[in-house]
Structures are given as C-alpha cells and as structure tokens.
Amino acid sequence: MFFRPNPNDELIISGVTYRVAEHPSAPGIPHGQEGRAGIVYHLHPTSSGKKAVGENLALKVFKPRFRLPYLVSQAERIATYADLPGLQVCRRTVLSPSRHVELLRQHPDLTYAVLMPWIEGPTWLEVVLEKKPYSREQSLALARALTETLVRMEEQGIAHCDLSGPNVMLPVLAGREGLELVDVEGIYAPGLPQPEALSSGSAGYAHKAIRDGAWNPKADRFAGAVLLAEMLGWCDEQVCQAAWSESYFEPGETQKNGKRYQTLLTSLRRHWDDGIANLFERAWRSDTLADCPTFGEWLVALPVSSEQRVESREQKVVSNAELSVERGKGVESGELLVERGKEVSDELPTAQVETVREVRAFMQAARRMEEQNNLDDALMLYRQARELATTDPALRSLAHEIALTLQDLEVRRRGKESLVPVMPVSPAPPVVPVPTLPVTIENRSSHKGKGWVWALVIVGLIVAGLIGLGIQQQQAEEHAMATAQAYEMQSTATAQVRENYVASIVNSTQLVFGPESGDLTHAADDSNVEVYYASVSEKDFIADAKFYNPYPTTTGSWDYGFLFRYQGGNDQYRLVIFSDTSWKLKNTVPDSGDEWHSDIIAEGTITNLNVEGNGYNTVKLICKGSKGYLYVNESFIAELDLSARTNSGGVVIATGITNGDEINGYSTKYQDFKVWEIP
Q1: Residue 313: band (very low, low, confident or very high) from pLDDT cuts 50, 70, 90
Q2: How is 345-372 classified by DSSP, letter by letter?
Q3: CA 488 → CA 202, 417, 629, distances in Å?
Q4: Which distant-in-sequence residues (6+ apart) come within 8 Å of 462 by Cβ?
Q5: What is the reported pLDDT for 90?
Q6: What digits encode the pLDDT tens for the residues 437-449?
Q7: Neighbours of 432 (CB within 10 A)
C-alpha cells in the first residue's frame, strides 16, 4: 500500500524525528503536493540532531516506477550545485536500503525517497491558473530571477531537462526571496550517468525536436524561453486571460503560429522591446535546441529596471501591436521614431549597466553587418562585444558564446576569400525583336507610360514641322505613330520578360505564414497605426492579402498596405494604398536622437482599385533582393526599387498609416494574409 501519512505522524530519519505537517488550509489533511513522479510532504523536525529544530524539510515519496537506485549516487554528485541560486533541492538525502534499512522495513514505500529543503511559495503553474496580471516590476523580477538561475547553470554545463510551470517555485511571492527549481531527478551535469528514462518535456513547454527526450547542456533553452516569455507577458491582462490552463500554451499548439503565440509576442514587443520579442521568436521558430538563444543572451537583453521601456514622445510610434483581431499599438502615422528609456537601476552599479548596454549595442550592430554579408565589419564588432563582456564576470557565458560566433565567422570569411563562387546558369528569357530606341523603362505605372507615348507623338510632330524638307503632315503623323507603336512593342517585350521572371520566383517559394484573417479596429484618437504581424523575418518573400474597404470614400479617406523589412521603431519600408486610388512606397529611416525622416521611393495611381464601401482589393507584394513588384487585383502596377534596404525584417499588414485615414467605430477587415519565402 502506498505511503499515506496523517498529519503529525512521526518519522525518524538519521536520528532526527520529523512530524508530518498539516495542510494550512485543510485541517486533518497532510500538507503535500502531488506531481507526476510522486508526492512531496512537508516535514517539521521535532528533535535535535543533525538538522536544526524548526527547519522545514520536504520528503518526496516516489511512485513505484520512479524508485531508482541511481538516485543515491546522483544525490552525492549534485550536492555541489546546491549553493547555486535556485538549486537548493540539490542538497538532499536519499533513503536507501544500505543506510536506512530500519525505516524502510516499517515503510517500504519510502525506498529511495528524497529528503530535501521545503520550498515555500506558489509554483508558476498556480500563477498561470490564477490568471491575475502582475505589475511590470513583478514580471521583470521573476524573469530576471529565472534568467540568472539558468545562466549560472548554463555556465556550469548543467540543465534541468524538464523545465515547466510546476517545477518553478516562487518563494518571492510568499514574502521570501528568489526562485527555486524542483524535480531535479532528471538533471544533466558533466559526469552524471544518464537516467534510465528521459523526459520528453512537459505539455506547453516541449520542443518538437525532443520527442524521445533530451539530456544535454542545451535541454532547457526552449522551455526556459517559453517560461521567460510567460513571466514577462504576465503584466498584460490580455496575455493572462488568453492562457490555456496549466500552461499558457495548449499542448498541441507549441511552436505553431496560433493566436496565443501572436498575443504573447505582441505583448513582449509592447511592454519590453524588440530584442526580447526576437529572442522568444527565435526559440519558437527553432528547429533544434541549439537554434534557441542562450540564457546569456536573455540576461543581456533584459532591462535592468522596469522603467527601462519603449516610450513615445509624440504620435504614431511603431511598437509591435495586437497580433490577433484586436487592434495594435504601433507604427507611427505621424512618422516618429521610437525613443527607448534607459534609466539605470539603483540595484546595479552604473558601470555594470553601461557595460551591458554597450555589449548589446555591439552585438546588434554585428548581426546587422552579418545579415548584409559584411563579415569584416561583423567580426570587428563581435570582437568589441567580446572584449567588453569579458570585463564583467556576470557576462562570462555570453562572452563564451560570442567567442564561438567569432570562430564560425572566421571560417565563413576564409571560405568566402578562398573560393570562387560558381553561379548557376539560368536559361535566358526569350528575346522579342523590337526597334532600338533610347528608352529606359524603370519604376513606371501605367499612367506615366501613356504620358511618355504622347510626349513621343508631340516630339515627332514638332520635329516633322521644323525639318520642313517636303515631309507632308500625313508623313509626320505616320512617323509619330510608328514611334508610339515602337515604344508599346518595347513595353510589351519588357512586360513579358518581367512576368516570366516573376513566374520563376513564384514557382520556387515556400509558404511560411498564414493564411490568417481578422480585423484591424480603427482607433483614430490613439495616434497609432493598426497592425498585424506575420511573425516572420524575411528579406526575399511574397506577401498577399485581401483588404476590405472600411467605408465608402464619401464617409472618409482610408488606407492600407504592407510594412516590410521592418527593423523596429519606424525603421522599415511602407507600401501604402490610398482611397483616392494613389499608392506610395516610402522608406522610413532613423536619424539621431528622436529624429527620423521618410523618403518617397515611388508613387503612382491604381486604375483598377475598387473604392466602393463594400468592396475589396487583393494586394500582392513580391520582394527579391533590390527589386520588388506590386500587383493589385492580379494586375501589375509597378516595379519597385528596394536597393535602399536589403536586410531581412518583419512583414506586417497595416491600416491608418496616414493621419486622418481612420474613423472610430470602423475596422479594416483582412482575409487570407499569407507570406511565402523566396529561397
């Protein structure tokens, strides 16, 4: 019969008498917590001995299949980690037949049970079930405590291997200090024997790549990222209410682009910054645990104070907004750059805070250089980041990761210098014979093309009249018409080449997001563009969506379109379609301080745009390197010059991009929003 004590029952363990505690909220019931592997009982010592009287201890009684002899040697080996923050329970005694035979004869079910410190406070699971939001200070304090624990473990080469809500206890919420990890029986550490059965992760926290279990130093990276994202998001009422049950994510939606993921990602961007959200996004979209960010990266990205946040001094600032059908807070229609508050916490020395900021800045700049394939500058910036990180012992783990990155980049650069790339040869497009004319066709909309045709006609007529060499009026008109026809022939040939090229791009794509449908609710008074993020970062892609006009043009003006190659703040391309049938491509670029500017790259008119109150338009944007192509309602509108911004970035649909293009009480519906990646 399984061990079932009553309150105040006594046990003598190693000469010390312990009494089973009564549950504080349930008289007559022993104070215990049941988990997957067994039940943990709260014990009070009642006699003097090796343990001080009054010290609270826990007795973990395993279910039969978890009573394993190797727990004895494991306890001896992991005791050295008990002094690390968050690992008190590594200080333990295992009740073994060789040392506690008398006790085990009385209670055979206590064989290989574990005696360890009792941790007071709720688990993270209990917090999630309660669905009560915390302050930003509380959320940050919890996230920092967990990050610091995991960084120290990472530096020692150890991993919990089953991080989840029930295994994270929060003494800080019970008037004590810190955070503690429990259920460490599956812990990985150098020199430990591998457990007989490996955990494949807990529901809501398990990576897709560890269905057969993970037991290595990287085993915590994904589950830790999810826990950190949950804690940082718990200052948001919407995140709390969206939580599934015992974990924020429902088991079947882990690493899928569902509504809960979008809600949490948006919250991280809104309440913290893009750096935090990007770390979570990397983990969520990772193929392996090695692809997930290290906890050293998390520690550097976390603000040192809850006051260190993204703030806007004026209207319309991008801060990634609602990813669900709710409206988002975000891209600034008034075209203003995000200002980030950087107040220094009194809890850390100013010099240490400045070191963290500088390391972060160098790493971000290095990554941008790396994305642009500028490996020399990336190496220089990574070296500066590593030198700074090595000056602070708290950043040793990060310095090590930077060193590994430097090694990889050096290999890539040597390969780039020594190898002559062999470019694949593509079949040349069919050549259409056309008259030779001094005409260069670039980013031209249809109305500009017609203007050029008539300009050629007029020039032809003027030339014919001035020459005056017996050419009759009819001949001049015929010459002008031939000139116009020649231009049209060249335009047709160019269009055919373009469509052949676009078709070759489309045939090579892979769908990476969508289809998604929803509404962008107008909020004319909040000075924010309403946005929906595809949760991808792409340089070369196809984005397609059907936009429904929010109201007739007699009611008011409206706009919608895509923000792409988005880097945060007001740092992105904006392709905007207006209710007056015009369109613009703008490049918004940060300057210094809180200044920025916007350059109009191209603009034109869409002759086939449906502007009826109940109408809709399908907009397709194709981006490949320095060129782009705009289609509306399956008709080609313009070729776009994208050479000013060739980096990867977010892909976003938006409405209300310009001041005055929103009306309270209305919404812009979108349907079948999809993104394809172009290899």
Answers
A1: very low
A2: PTTS-HHHHHHHHHHHHHHHHHHHHHHT
A3: 65, 46, 20
A4: none
A5: 97
A6: 232 222 333 333 3
A7: 12
Torsion of CA 202, 205, 209, 212, to 10 degrees: -10
Provide the token pair at 88.
């008190």
The tens digit of pLDDT for each residue in 25-54 reads 888 889 988 887 889 999 998 865 444 445
Contacts of residue 466, defined as CB under 8 A and 6 or more positions apart, other chains included, come to: none
Q: How far lies 244's CA from each of 131, 203, 254, 259, 512, in Å?
A: 10, 11, 12, 11, 25
Contact 671, 347 (CB under 8 A): no
Q: Is 140 left (phi over 0), alpha (psi -120 to 50) or beta?
A: alpha
What are the beta bridge partners of residue 530? 655
Phi-psi region of 605 (alpha: psi -120 to 50; beta: other; left: phi over 0): beta
Torsion from C-alpha of 44, 45, 47, 51, nearest 10 degrees: -160
- Report the C-alpha gap between 543 and 576 in whole angstroms: 14
Q: What is the mean pLDDT of the chain?
A: 79
Name the pLDDT band for 352 (thresholds 50, 70, 90): low
pLDDT of residue 555 exceeding 80, the answer is yes
Closest CA to 30 of 1, 12, 53, 10: 10
Select from 664, 411, 636 the least CA-distant residue to 528.
664
CA–CA dist 487, 491 (Å, integer) = 6
Strands across the sheet with 510-521, in order? 510-521, 667-677, 541-548, 616-624, 627-632, 635-641
CB-count burial class (<10 Å; 0-12, 13-18, 19+) for 505: middle
The answer to whether 185 touches 195, Cβ cutoff 8 Å, is yes
DSSP per-residue codes, 370-402: HHTT-HHHHHHHHHHHHHHHTTSGGGHHHHHHH
Tens of pLDDT, residues 101-124: 999 999 999 999 999 999 999 999
Per-residue b or e along 378-415, where b marks 16 or more CB atoms closer than 10 Å to that residue's CB = bbebbbbbbebbbeeebbebbbbbbeebbeebeeeeee
pLDDT at 476: 47
pTM (2 decimals)?
0.50
C-alpha gyration radius of the chain:
32
- Rounded to an integer, what distance in angstroms lies between the CA atom of residue 573 and that of residue 585? 7
Tokens of 357: 């900021």
pLDDT at 80 over 60: yes
* DSSP conformational letter for 333: T
Which residues, other chains included, contact 295 with Cβ-Cβ below 8 Å and sequence gap of 6+?
147, 150, 151, 153, 154, 220, 221, 224, 397
Pairing, β 168-169 against β 180-181: antiparallel
Amino acid letter, 313? R
Using alpha carbons, select from 8, 17, 189 the residue that is nearest to residue 90: 189
Q: Is 98 left (phi over 0), alpha (psi -120 to 50) or beta?
A: alpha
Question: Please, is 565 exposed, middle or buried when counting C-beta atoms within 10 Å of its C-beta (0-12, 13-18, 19+)?
Answer: buried
The residue type found at 555 is T
Q: Where are the beta strands (DSSP E) in 63-126?
A: 93-94, 114-117
* Per-residue pLDDT at 651 exceeds 50: yes
In the numeric block, the tokens 């009480």 are attached to: 665
**All residues at 6 or more sequence positions from 339 whose CB lies less than 8 Å from its CB, including other chains:** 310, 311, 312, 313, 593, 594
